[in-house]
Design a protein that fits this description.
Elements (H helix, E strand, L loop, with lengths): L4 E10 L4 H5 L5 H7 L3 E3 L11 E6 L9 H18 L4 E8 L1
Antiparallel strand pairs: 1-3, 1-4, 2-3
Amino acid sequence: MGIEYQGFMLIGEKMSNISIFINQKNFDWDKWIEENNFEMADPYFDCDMEDRYIGFKIEDIPIKDINNEWLDNLKLLGKKFEELTDTSPKLIGILNIF
């Protein structure tokens, strides 16, 4: 058994940049992340919580299939992320190391 990884895109942000994370240290973040259907990505093995990224996973799509509907969906997910976290999200390509 070794270190495994998977790559994907997120509409989200690093935990240390999320204002509600900064302001609430004694909070069940794992439960909150699950309840809000966020994905987590650890950029290194045994990652500290503040270095994790959370957000909504974006499925792989061929460039030729990107259309206004897909872009509108990204914007809706970004708006939802901002409403839940009070933080402006980014579109992030990341590896989850586990």
